[in-house]
Amino acid sequence: MSAAEGAIPPPSPWLGLLEPLRAMAELSLLPSAAAVLAVAPRGDGHPVLVIPGLLGTDQSTWILRRYLNELGHRAEPWGLGRNGEFSRDRAAALLARLIELRESSGGRKVSLVGWSLGGVQARMLARHRPDLVRNVVTLGSPFRGSRASADSLRDVASDRSHRIADRPPLPGVPCTAIFSRTDGVVAWPRTVERVSGLSESIEVYGSHLGLGVNPSVLFATADRLAQPEGKWRPFDRSGWRRLMYGTP
Q1: Among 5, 56, 184, 208, which residue's CB has the most CB atoms within a 10 Å radius?
Q2: Domains of the chain, with CATH numbers?
């Protein structure tokens, strides 16, 4: 879809009001989903930089990082405090963090997981330094839009135009966009990836604020990060997974 095809309306106000309750409900599902989460593919120990959403800190991604680490990934916090205004200094610090993880892992490429605004930042990093990035996973990230399409983070969270820009996928970097059609914060069409040989979108059922604790999101993220480097394949929705994930 191109920007010329018109504006995308914001999410329903009712979905927005229900976001906190829905997120708590998703969190409450984790114990009952433990058996399924435990059979996700295991990681190979390469570094994974997890970037929080707008106004979020590393505390907001703790459950996601702990789960990934239990599966053998090396999930690391971004370490830059609360995610908000993205200045040149903050962008430079994030790039330095990426380089630090690459060097501390003996030169292994780093996977990036970004929640909401954090996913926009992850894509910017990957577009700027694809040589350092192994894989990108975004969670409800508004990377398709009038400002986000230009790869500018300034005021991206307050962009109200909701126009869709047909931005090409990241060059040479596998990218998975995890999204929900019932997202109460971001218009979901802004959060989906254009399908290519190295890009895909995975639909889950849930809220925006609950993406970091939603069992379906956790499993899909782990699955994508566990793929061997250079051997990316689309997400498998066959069998029991059809119950957890929407039709592509």
Answers
A1: 208
A2: 3-227 (3.40.50.1820)
CA count, 13 A, side-chain hemisphere, 240: 6
pLDDT tops 50 at residue 17:
yes
Q: What is the pTM of this model?
A: 0.88
49, β-bridge pairs: 76, 112
pLDDT digit string, tens, across residues 137-194: 999 999 886 443 333 334 343 443 333 334 556 778 999 999 999 999 999 999 999 8
CA distance 149 to 163: 10
Contact between 8 and 187 under an 8 Å Cβ cutoff? The reply is yes
Collapsed DSSP state (helix, strand, coil) of residue 31: coil
The pLDDT tens digits of the residues spanning 69-125 come to: 999 999 999 999 999 877 788 889 999 999 999 999 999 999 999 999 999 999 999
CA-only gyration radius of the chain, Å = 17
Contact between residue 40 and residue 219 where contact means Cβ atoms under 8 Å apart: yes
CA distance 165 to 183: 19
Centre a 10 Å sphere on the Cβ of residue 77 and count the other Cβ atoms it contains: 16
C-beta separation of 150 from 168 below 8 A: no
**Dist CA 187 CA 201 (whole Å):** 15
Structure tokens at 85: 């205004």
**Is the Cβ–Cβ distance between 60 and 53 less than 8 Å?**
yes
CA-nearest of 128, 125, 98, 235 to 178 is 235
Distances, alpha carbon 104 to alpha carbons 46, 98, 228, in Å: 10, 10, 20
